[in-house]
Design brief:
The radius of gyration is 21 Å and the shape is globular. The protein folds into 3 domains: 48 residues, no CATH class; 121 residues, no CATH class; 98 residues, no CATH class. A hairpin with a 5-residue loop joins strand 3 and strand 4. The protein has a 3-stranded antiparallel β-sheet. The protein is mainly alpha-helical and 286 residues long. Helix content is 56%, strand content 6%. The chain is built from 16 helices and 5 strands.
Length: 286
């Protein structure tokens, strides 16, 4: 059974239908009626979204994410991109078991799905067609077509900058972006102030640092006070940025400064304890 927005709200908040009814100013019978019909009035849906921060178009995505939460981190991203870009016929034709190959690289997996779908006459939604083709090349070969930009490669030959760009083309998929991409890629976060300094917060555990973080991390919230020299803002190579991030890590290690991930800032709302544990286990193992 799919997870609806109503189910997700009850699960996230850990409250009864009666308690939820009070929070969104409706009668308990109304919620029972929504459960039976699967239809929630627009105004009430907005209240539910406000409570847990989930976009209504992402109800099915929440279910899909739960189904693959134990898969490899980057394969989750590939699953998401494939799934969201399929038309309905394609979604119905492909079973989740098709995604279960743990040996195949994400790039080969994506290429296989693209090829299989195309040979069956099924096509990607137009908005994602070229983006996914580029992503397949990127995951498979570590490059993006003829792009001569420095390759900002992160774990699994995934380019954070490109993946962020792909996901940002799907504005209404913010829930997945916040649940999966943001907590992992911004587990070390930087933000530049007007003077060109960067403030930092995050967790260094099990992370690879490279230039991809430079483009992704500087735009998110921060807590903590370690300030990097403004050289990082002007650094033009992966080597220079890596060197500075190494200095930062050594600075923290030498002073035994433990920096913890702030899930409140990452998720944008206070997630349930269960969700936090899932995220920690999935994205920050060890």
């Amino acid at each position: 059974m799919s997870i609806t927005l109503l189910d997700l709200t009850l699960k996230e908040l850990g409250i009864s239908q009666k308690e939820l009814a009070k929070k969104i100013w409706v009668s308990p019978s109304a919620i029972s009626r929504w459960r039976r019909s699967g239809i929630i009035p627009a105004e009430s849906k907005d209240h539910l979204i406000d409570l847990i921060g989930v976009h209504p178009s992402d109800e099915h995505l929440a279910c899909f994410f739960m189904g693959v939460q134990n898969a490899e981190r980057w394969k989750n991203i590939v699953f998401f991109l494939i799934y969201k870009s399929m038309n309905n016929d394609w979604k119905n034709a492909i079973k989740q078991s098709d995604f279960s190959d743990t040996v195949m690289s994400p790039g080969r997996l994506l290429s296989k799905i693209v090829e299989a779908g195309s040979s069956s006459g099924l096509v990607f939604e137009p908005v994602m067609d070229s983006a996914l083709a580029n992503l397949a090349d990127l995951l498979e070969y570590g490059e993006q077509g003829s792009d001569d930009e420095a390759l900002n490669v992160i774990e699994g030959n995934c380019q954070a900058r490109f993946i962020r760009k792909v996901i940002e083309t799907m504005a209404d998929h913010y829930f997945f972006y916040r649940m999966v991409i943001t907590p992992y890629l911004t587990s070390c976060r930087f933000r530049f102030d007007d003077d060109g300094y960067a403030s930092f917060s995050g967790c260094f555990e099990d992370l690879m640092f490279d230039a991809s973080f430079y483009t992704v991390l500087c735009e998110y919230g921060f807590c903590g006070s370690y300030r990097l020299d403004s050289r990082i803002k002007a650094a033009g190579s992966i080597g220079k940025i890596n060197s500075m991030l190494k200095e930062l890590r050594e600075y923290l290690d030498d002073r035994k400064i433990e920096v913890k991930l702030d899930f409140q800032k990452c998720f944008g709302y206070k997630p349930s304890k269960q969700l936090v544990e899932i995220a920690k286990k999935e994205f920050f193992p060890g």
